[in-house]
Design goal:
Low-confidence stretches: 1-100, 127-223
Number of helices: 15
Strand content: under 5%
Number of domains: 3
Region (Disordered): 25-54
Shape: rod-shaped
Helix content: over 70%
Coiled coil: 317-401
Keywords: Coiled coil
Largest sheet: 2 strands, antiparallel
Radius of gyration: 72 Å
Mean pLDDT: 68
Number of strands: 4
Strand order of the largest sheet: 1-4
Order of helices and strands: HHHHHHEEEHEHHHHHHHH
Length: 662
């Protein structure tokens, strides 16, 4: 086991270049802080003492000013040069430079990154050894070589616990004693190298190849020529090491150039990808711009259609009004006709009733006359029959008396004959009167029949007029329902028109403000994306957008209240701000005229602008003009309002310009 350890130690020592060593840096620096400041030169009198305390390994010397020159040498610099791409890639956004299907270059970059990471991890374990540069050539006295003072710096390395615990022995031609030490307090070195001006050697060794051990030669009796030969060999070996280090530095620089070229290609690829992504974003932005333009076009079309509908509604309303007036005239005429027909029907009814009453009276009178005549005729006949029977009786009695007395009977007969003749004439007059009454009865019956026919005609006419009147009432009912429906439709259209008018009055100022602001944004995007200089159109668009965004607009602010666009929790505070800004409530807005509204906008804009020394004279002119306008309410107020607006714009522009300069 000890032989194997000795072989490993010798092999590791042979692999180290001359002038390099790996020690326990932390313990050496803690326990020997003055090792760097000690005088490491050897006098001729102290030759034997120094030969007894020589270490078998070369000193570790580092230039403070040559770190940048050696940055490309060794494993640390290689790992740093190879992993700088990874460090740069960490700052790029995630997902850039990555494809769904990895290419050969991506695999190569991944392999380089993996190797760099492994080297970086190993470099944290390994130690950096820096060679020293001498300032003077060595001097020999009493066949011993002396060197000037050298700066020794111990580098950090990984220690092997087994090698620290166990002691190693090395057999030499002469008796040599090897002692393993964990802590080095005083180190005195006699270096046998030629003077190399501004040269440095950097060697890095892996932790697996390092064997930390400190060997001290206690006794050495080497002849002086052999020591000179060894020194020459050491110098030659160090020169070869310097050449190999330069070769390694050249290869490292070439590797760095290759990596830089890869980095440039990678950055070019990423820039192409960024340009592509920017182009896609521009396409998306163009599409996003097309959509608001379509929405605006649709809104304009809807507004135009609403105006056309409003015009059609007005025309329909006027036509309905004319039809309604005609219907009202027809209804009035029908009412007059109905009243006339009712009067005629009432008159006809009254006439029919009077005719019926007259007919009834005549019939009753005729019946009464007939009965009376019949009774009188019966009475007359009975009287005549009685008188005839009496005359016959008297004639018989006279005939009997005639026989008695002819003279007396003849006179009596003459009297009776006269009386009979009078009675006969009376009878004839009664019969004539009866016939006359019968003729009158016939005539009255005929007239009553005529009156009945007339009554029937009037009743039929009345029924016809009643049917016509019912038709007129039905037609009037239909026309009334149609009129009521037309009035309802007219009222409904009027309500829709009022609702659309209110909505239009609310939306119009907000749409105008939003359109001005978005046009300003599109003009700024055009200037930023396409590098187009601002022309008069762009200046006008930006001016309108700035006025819409930063100046007061009482119509738009009132529309926010009327359209319920303000949150409930902020409504009271917004009302207070509105009243303080415009000096009136939002509900009083319809009473403001156009000129008064413009003056209120100027006043509110000036209230929002912070006053500074730049615009004092403009503020003074504005206040003077405001007071004169408040006193003078004449026709020249429109001209003064334009002047007030111009002063307000000048104040706002001056304040904004002063803020930009600050």
């Amino acid at each position: 086991m000890a032989a194997k350890k000795k072989k490993a130690t010798a092999a590791s020592a042979s692999r180290f270049p001359a002038g390099t060593v790996s020690l326990l840096a932390s313990k050496a620096e803690d326990r020997a802080p003055s090792a760097e400041n000690e005088d490491l030169s050897v006098n001729p009198q102290q030759g034997e003492e120094t030969q007894e305390s020589w270490p078998l390994h070369a000193p570790v010397i580092e230039y403070d000013s040559c770190e940048e020159k050696c940055a490309g040498w060794g494993s640390d610099t290689d790992s740093g040069s190879e992993c700088f791409l990874d460090n740069d890639m960490c700052f790029l956004p995630t997902g850039w430079g990555k494809n769904d299907t990895p290419s050969i270059e991506d695999k190569g970059r991944a392999e380089i990154a993996r190797k760099a990471k492994l080297k970086k991890e190993k470099s944290q374990v390994s130690a950096v050894v820096v060679a020293a540069c001498q300032e003077k050539t060595p001097t020999a006295s009493d066949r011993k070589v002396g060197f000037p003072r050298a700066l020794v710096k111990l580098a950090q390395s990984c220690t092997n616990t087994e090698s620290m615990e166990s002691a190693q022995e090395v057999s030499c031609d002469q008796n040599e004693q090897v002692v393993n030490e964990s802590v080095i307090e005083d180190i005195k070195v006699i270096n046998s190298t030629n003077y190399l001006k501004n040269s440095c050697v950097v060697c890095s060794s892996r932790s697996s190849e390092l064997v930390t051990s400190n060997t001290i030669i206690t006794k050495s009796t080497v002849p002086e020529p052999e020591s000179s030969i060894k020194l020459v060999e050491k110098i030659a070996r160090q020169e070869r090491d310097v050449k190999s280090a330069k070769t390694q530095a050249g290869s490292s620089r070439a590797e760095i150039e290759v990596l830089k070229q890869k980095h440039r290609l990678e950055m070019q690829k990423q820039s192409d990808q960024l340009n592509e992504s920017h182009r896609k974003e521009m396409d998306v932005m163009k599409l996003d711009l097309v959509e608001p333009q379509a929405v605006r076009q649709k809104a304009l079309t809807d507004l135009r259609r609403v105006k056309e509908d409003n015009l059609n509604i007005r025309m329909d309303r006027a036509e309905l009004k004319s039809k309604l007036e005609a219907i009202n005239g027809d209804a009035a005429r029908f009412k007059n006709n109905i009243l006339a027909l009712e009067e005629q029907s009432n008159h006809a009814l009254k006439s029919a009733e009077s005719f019926s009453k007259l007919v009834e009276d005549l019939t009753r009178k005729a019946k009464e006359t007939k009965l009376r005549l019949d009774a009188e005729q019966a009475n007359t006949s009975a009287t005549l029959l009685q008188q005839n029977s009496k005359l016959l009786d008297e004639n018989r009695r006279l005939k009997q008396q005639q026989s008695q007395s002819t003279a007396i009977s003849s006179n009596r007969l003459k009297q009776l004959q006269q009386k009979y003749d009078s009675l006969a004439s009376t009878y004839c007059s009664v019969v004539a009167k009866r016939d006359k009454l019968r003729v009158d009865l016939t005539r009255c019956q005929r007239q009553c029949q005529e009156w009945k026919d007339e009554a029937e005609y009037y009743n039929a006419s009345r029924d016809d007029h009643r049917g016509e009147l019912d038709d007129v009432v039905k037609e009037l009912t239909k026309m009334t329902a149609k009129y009521e429906k037309a009035v309802y439709n007219c009222n409904w259209e009027q309500q829709n028109y009022d609702k659309l008018k209110r909505t239009f009055d609310i939306v119009e100022p907000l749409v105008k403000v939003g359109a001005d602001i978005r046009l300003r944004f599109l003009d700024q995007a055009r200037e930023a994306l396409f590098d187009i200089s601002r022309d008069e159109t762009g200046t006008a668009l930006r001016t309108n957008g700035n006025a819409a965004a930063h100046k007061s607009n009482v119509a738009a602010d009132v529309a926010l209240f009327k359209g319920s666009f303000i949150p409930e929790e902020y409504k009271e505070e917004a009302e207070e701000v509105f009243e303080k800004l415009y000096r009136q409530k939002s509900s009083e807005y319809p009473s403001w005229t156009g000129t008064h509204g413009r003056e209120i906008n100027c006043y509110a804009t000036l209230q929002m602008t912070k006053r500074s020394d730049v615009s004092d004279h403009l503020h003074y002119l504005w206040s003077v003009l405001w007071r004169s306008m408040s006193k003078d309410q004449t026709t020249t107020q429109v001209r003064w309002t334009k002047t007030l607006e111009w002063l307000t714009d000048e104040i706002v522009d001056a304040e904004r310009s002063s803020r930009r300069r600050r």
